[in-house]
Amino acid sequence: MIRKTLISFLFLLPALGHTQKALTLSDAILKAGTEYAPERIKGLQWIEGTAEYCTVKENVLLRSSVNGRSDTPIIDLATLNAALADTAKLRSFPGITWLAPDRFRFHHNSAFHTYTLGTAKSTKLALPDEAANEDVNDHSGAVAYTVDNDLFVQELNMVEPHRITVDGADGIVNGQAVHRQEYGITKGTFWSPNGDKLAFYRMDETMVSPYFLEDISTKPSAFDKIRYPMAGGTSHHVTVGVYDLKTMSTVFLHTDEPLDQYLTNISWDSEGNYVHVVHLDRITENLKLVRYDARNGSPVATLLEEHDDKYLEPEHPAQFLKTRPGQYLWRSERDGWEHLYLYDTKKGLVKQLTKGNWAVKDVIGMDPKEAFAIVEGTGMIQAGRPTGALETHLYRVDLKTGKTTRLTDEAGTHHGQLSSDGSYIIDRWSSTTVPGRYVIRDSRSGKEVELLLGSKDPLAGTTVGTIELLTIPGENGDFLNARLIKPSGFEAGRKYPVLIYVYNGPHVRLVQNAFLGGASLWMLEAAERGYLVWTVDGHGSADRGRDFEQAVHRHLGELEVMDQMRGVEFLKDLPYVDADRIAVHGWSFGGHMTTALLTRYPGAFIAGVAGGPVMDWGLYEVMYTERYMDTPMENPDGYAATALARNAAQLQDDLLIITGGKDDTVLPQHAFTFLKACVDEGIRVDFFDYPGHGHNVRGKDRVHLMDKVLEYIDARIQP
């Protein structure tokens, strides 16, 4: 008998009465962010350069002060439209970015507009209709953008844009994210603080073998060509250019060899003289932060270096201080947890600022004097009680002493926004018992000084069950966080079938102490079909520290499967679980896990649905796979053990495989390889393709997807 360890039961309870309505699958998907989401405050943000905040109500922008005069009108939609330098008018008040106490910017009709309070007009910076990857500089107002694979900059009061590159073509990409958006890379352009220079990525992928995805919208069908570097294969080459808007010239940083290294986490110093790049070698064991002279591209100094025998994955650039130009904040897991360090460009490490068994997740801001930083981080994580990973809290970190003060006591998930004067924090938070709460806190003590909104439960009038957060024993003596959803009207004396929803891949955590416990709303609808919905975050998942995450190294998908089976054992030991009716579903890494569970533990499950599944890590991308698995040449046994087509003959239970026909993340070849193995072995397997869709099925078609998933499980799991 496996020991049950319940850390807490947190319930989402349906309201009582006769007006309850059923939650439909369509509504659970299409209205999850609207009707069934906790109430939000539209447009809530601090006004730049003040201790005031703004909101939008009935298309009127309002100004409020903390515990003082509130809801003072600033401008309404009609007035803004009258000032708009555009024939296409706004239908609702736009999302804005404050540039100064009296000036804000917004995007509308392929243009950036800036409005100054007290004037009767706005300025407009128009871009071509085909512009993409727009990146605006707050100081100068100039906008970098791409057209196809070339990079441009449009300045205010200039008729023609700067054309920065002319070599964009098939295999040559400028100004866009590189390295397949791994290692914290989400964009391809990086403005200097005052907007006079622009650093940008150039990616040469001509040496990467083309891969073709079928497009059935033409007659006959055509094939879209992408470049997809597979594990162990040839990778692309990346360089970093710096364009000077004054001289209208470009220099490239002398980043040198090897050409397939990763150039990540680009940042500028506070004065705009130097560009900083994190170099990560392809084996992902060594990194260095290099400072480059922005005028000539020459390396000036290596500011720091790190090594890890398994892997490193830098995701955050060095953050340079404005008041102390020679100092910067650096984030690292070197002591086993993601923490903040203070460095000096000449002296090196000054101080480790945060410490302990918790992880810094984000730096949300600093006061004007940069005496302290406000960060988001997990709760404290103790052996046997990993509940700290379920929560996100706000902390104040003194940049001189490192003294760290937790500002939020309420259990849950907190996200903060610091006022520009550093006095107050807007805290948006929720938990499994608090649908949503917006409060203003004192940034020194964390004391709540004003309640802005306490959201009502959007499911109060809908029939739904309960959500419980638990902890269970996992492999290696570790404890794992889990979530159990029960249907309304649950009866402990009955036997219920179970649907396991799984991901369990790196950088993802599905269970959290937030609204719905981190679950998707469709899971509550699924529970109303008469079964329990179960999820476990096993080894490799986020926010549990370096050792917990790195435990999967070179064996991606093996230890995690054992963790999931620990969850199955736990379920079978519950008196209300029908051990003969357990199904599993997951997407992407979860699709791999679903297939692995069914092929490694035949007969343990009644059915599985694997969406967008990785079936062979040798077919997955270089940047992700080699970090966790090394190359196929270095780790042949690890790749062989996790190549699921080799286990096709072991499949006994019903399995539905789903792909997107134009999935450029997990290529359709993964599914086809497994299907071919099943055919070769005489194993029956079900398959469905969503033509034209990428790695996931979005929009209204997602209703079709989840209906198909749940109908497949219903037909096999229901008595």
Total discrete domains:
4
Number of strands: 45
Report strand order across the widest sheet. Answer: 38-39-41-40-42-43-44-45
What is the CATH first-level class name of the largest domain? Alpha Beta
CATH topology term of the largest domain: Rossmann fold
Supply the CATH architecture of the largest domain.
3-Layer(aba) Sandwich
Distance between the termini: 26 Å
Please outline the helices and strands.
Elements: E1 21-22, H1 25-30, E2 45-46, E3 52-57, E4 60-65, E5 72-76, H2 77-83, E6 97-100, E7 103-108, E8 111-116, E9 122-126, E10 132-136, E11 143-147, E12 150-154, E13 162-163, E14 172-174, E15 189-191, E16 197-204, E17 210-215, E18 222-227, E19 237-244, E20 249-252, E21 262-268, E22 274-280, E23 286-293, E24 299-307, E25 319-320, E26 327-332, E27 339-344, E28 348-352, E29 360-366, E30 372-378, E31 392-398, E32 404-406, E33 413-418, E34 424-430, E35 437-442, E36 448-454, E37 462-463, E38 466-473, E39 479-486, E40 496-502, H3 521-527, E41 532-537, H4 546-550, H5 559-572, E42 577-587, H6 589-600, E43 607-611, H7 622-629, H8 636-641, E44 654-660, H9 668-681, E45 686-690, H10 701-717
Parallel strand pairs: 1-37, 40-41, 40-42, 42-43, 43-44, 44-45
Antiparallel strand pairs: 2-3, 3-4, 4-5, 6-7, 7-8, 8-9, 10-11, 11-12, 12-13, 14-16, 15-16, 16-19, 17-18, 19-20, 21-22, 22-23, 23-24, 25-26, 26-27, 27-28, 29-30, 30-31, 31-32, 33-34, 34-35, 35-36, 38-39, 39-41
